[in-house]
Write a sequence for this structure.
């Protein structure tokens, strides 16, 4: 035997062998736990990314629909110069100015409305909107959202108005989404007497408490944007005498629309 050959290692005793096996099992278990925790974190990140991608996809689809709708509206915009005065397509249609006085018989007041063919649904200014249930159906209670300058019957300015909810619409804006109730009210405008769907929203910062959109105008009216208040202001038992242009203000000057986007 060579003289420099190392001595063989001493054999492990059973307790030392068991201790080494236990140490290896603990190390392997700790490594597996760390790997599982990392996988769980990766799954959570993947789920969040998937949710964000779906949300972005939904926003893109709605944006494409809005762009397509705007393109269709631009393509369908009527050219006044191409419509002869005797065009039969204009027969039996009321002529409206860019703003008109409307009446709400069930509420008991008149209001000034902006005529907006760029909006789809009509809108009514409302505050303190409260949802409730009546006979198993969705109803809403609200007050008219008016400025001191807005023309209306003073007796109903602070009255509560109740109406069943026809449906709800989702409005997508830069600061998020909104769900607005839609109600139906009988409305008069000159010789027109129609039940109109209104979305309820706070329009106090805007120039007009009412906006009349395409669904109301379609097939019953055309708009002359160079004129205002073609039709007389409706009268109700508690309002004062109207002036010649239909306004309740002695000065007779209605506030002009600034062209800001209306909800």
């Amino acid at each position: 035997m060579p003289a420099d050959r190392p001595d063989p290692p001493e054999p492990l005793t059973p307790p030392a062998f068991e201790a080494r096996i236990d140490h290896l099992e603990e190390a392997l278990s700790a490594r597996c736990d760390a790997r599982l925790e990392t996988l769980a974190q990766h799954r959570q990140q993947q789920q969040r990314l998937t949710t964000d991608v779906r949300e972005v996809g939904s926003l893109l689809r709605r944006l494409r629909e809005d762009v397509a709708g705007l393109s269709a509206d631009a393509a369908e915009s009527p050219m006044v110069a191409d419509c002869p005065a005797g065009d039969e397509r204009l027969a039996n249609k009321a002529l409206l100015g860019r703003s008109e006085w409307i009446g709400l018989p069930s509420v008991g007041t008149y209001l000034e409305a902006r005529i907006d063919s760029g909006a789809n649904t009509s809108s009514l200014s409302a505050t303190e909107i409260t949802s409730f249930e009546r006979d198993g159906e969705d109803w809403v209670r609200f007050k008219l959202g008016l400025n001191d300058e807005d023309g209306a019957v003073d007796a109903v300015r602070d009255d509560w108005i109740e109406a069943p909810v026809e449906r709800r619409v989702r409005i997508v804006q830069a600061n998020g989404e909104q769900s607005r109730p839609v109600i139906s009210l009988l409305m008069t405008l000159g010789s027109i007497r129609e039940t109109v769907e209104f979305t309820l929203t706070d329009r106090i910062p805007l120039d007009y408490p009412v906006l009349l959109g395409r669904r109301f105008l379609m097939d019953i009216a055309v708009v002359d944007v160079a004129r205002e208040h073609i039709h007389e202001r409706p009268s109700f038992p508690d309002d004062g005498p109207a002036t010649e242009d239909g306004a309740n203000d002695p000065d007779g000057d209605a506030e002009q629309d600034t062209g800001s986007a209306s909800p």
